[in-house]
Write a structure and sequence with these properties.
Layout (H helix, E strand, L loop, with lengths): L2 H11 L39 H8 L2 H31 L16 E5 L2 H4 L3 H7 L1 H6 L2 E6 L25 H13 L4 E4 L14 H18 L3 E4 L2 H4 L5 H9 L8 E6 L4 H11 L3 E5 L6 H10 L5 E4 L12 H10 L3 E5 L13 H5 L9 H26 L1 H5 L1 E7 L3 E7 L5 E7 L5 E3 L9 E7 L10 E3 L3 E3 L3 E7 L4
Parallel strand pairs: 1-2, 1-8, 2-3, 3-4, 4-5, 5-6, 6-7, 7-8
Antiparallel strand pairs: 9-10, 10-11, 11-16, 12-15, 13-14, 13-16
Helix pairs in contact: 5-7, 8-10, 11-12, 13-15
Length: 488
Amino acid sequence: MNKEDDMREVELNEMDQEKQPMTGETPTGTEKNGCVKVKVPEDTEVKFTGLSKEELMKVAGTAGWVRTRWALLVLFWLGWVGMLAGAIVIIVQAPRCKPIPEMNWWNEGLLYQISDVNEFSKNGMKGVEEKLDYLTQMKVKGLILGPIHTVDADQLDTLDLVSVKSAVGTENDLKSLLEQAHKKGIPIVLNLTPSYDKASVWLNNVTAVAEKIKDACTHWLEKGFDGIFLPDLRNIKTTKSWQSIQAIFNKTEETKQVALMGSVTSFSADEVSLVLNRSGVDLLLTELSDPPETGELKKLYSSHPQTILGWSLGSPASRTTAAPVRLFQMLLFTVPGTPVFSAGDEVGLKAGEKPQIMWDLENPAEEKNTAAKTLQEERIAVRDFFKTLSDLRGKERSLLHGEYISLHSSATSLAFLRLWDQSSRYLTAMNWGNDPVTMILSNSDLPAQAQVRLTTDAVNLAVDSMVSLEKLQLGPKQAVLLSYPYAG
C-alpha cells in the first residue's frame, strides 16, 4: 500500500459515525461498532528508587543534618523533662486524700433486728428466709436474729442456749437460712438474751448464765453465725467468764470476721464510755434519747471511734414525743455510728402493731375504705423514705465515716454536719417542736446554699431545690437532709 492509499484510509476513519457502518468485521473477524481502536503506547513510568545506602550515609554525615538531629533530640528531652516536672508539680500541689479508715461489715450500713421470728413471718425461720430479698431491697448489711432458744420462767437449770426452739423451726431451717443469707451477702448475728420474756434477763444469776453463754458462743459460731449479741453488758462484763467469752471472738478465721455485740440501756455518755472501755465489744448498741442529746453524742464521738457505736430507736411504746418516725429514721442514718432498726421501723409501726402489716402493704387497699388507703399510702411513703436514707448511708463516705460537727442545738431542734475529705458534705437539720424554728448556721466549710436531698416538708423544701444556709427555716415536726460539694 502506497502513501496515497494510507491517507485515503485515515480520511475514511474520520468520517461521521452516521456514515460508518453499524456493524462490521475487522480483518481478523472482530466486531467493531463504528469505532476504530487506536492503540496508544503508554508513557514509560519513571520509578524513584531512592538513595542508595552509600549515598544516604554520605548525606547523613554532612554538618547540616548532624545539627538538625541534635536539635530534635534536645527538643525531645526538654519536652519530656518539662512534662515530668509539670506532673510532679500537680501531684505536690494537689490535696492529699485521707486514707479510708478500717471498717467492718457491721459498719457498712444498717443492721436489722428480728426479735420475734414468728411475728415477723408466719413460717418462722423459713419465713425469714423468704424475706431475704426484701431485706436486700432495704439495703440491710446485717441481721440480728432471735432469741430462738427455749427459756422457762426463773428456771436456770432448764435454760438451753444451744438448741433451737421448735416453735420457730428446726436446725435444718436455720442452716438453710444461714446459707441463703450468706449467698446474698447478709451476715447473721444471733441474739443470746437468756430470759427474753421476763424482767431479769440474767435469771438473777449472771455468773451462772455467763458460763452457759460462753459455751453457746462457741457452738453457734461453729454453726456459721457471724456474731453474737448480748444484752445489758453492765452485768456480764464483771463476771469471771467475760475474758473467756472475749477470747472466743479474738480468734477469728482468715476468711471472715465475727462480731461480739452488746447493748446498754442508759444513754449517759459517761456510762456508755465505761461499758465500752471495760467490755471490749465490737459494737455497743444504745437507744437514742428522746429528744436526742447532741451534747452527749459529741462527747462520745470525741472519745470513741464511731465504728463501735450503734444506735436504735427503742420500742415504739418507749418514745415520749409525737414526732413522725421519719425524723428518727433520718437521725439514725446520719449520725456517726451504725444504725440498728427493729422490724417494722421502716414503715413506722406503732406500739401493739404486728410486723405482718408490712406484707399487707403489697396488697392494694379497698377503694371504698378511704382511711385504710390513706394509711397504706403513708406507710409506703415512709418505707421509701427509709430506703433512700439506707442507700445514701451505705455509699456516701461522709455519712459512712465522716467527721461530726454540731451546727445548732436546742431543746427541740438540732443541726449537724457530716464531712469527709473531698467527698460531698451532708447537713442534717430537724425540728421536734410544735413551733417553727430558724437556725443560724455558721461554719467555715458552709457555702451560701445547699441542695435538698431528702425532706419531710416537700412544700417548702422540695427535693433537688437549693436553699439558703444563712437562716434555715424548719416547720414543726420537720426534717431536711442537705448536701453540697467539696470546695477545696
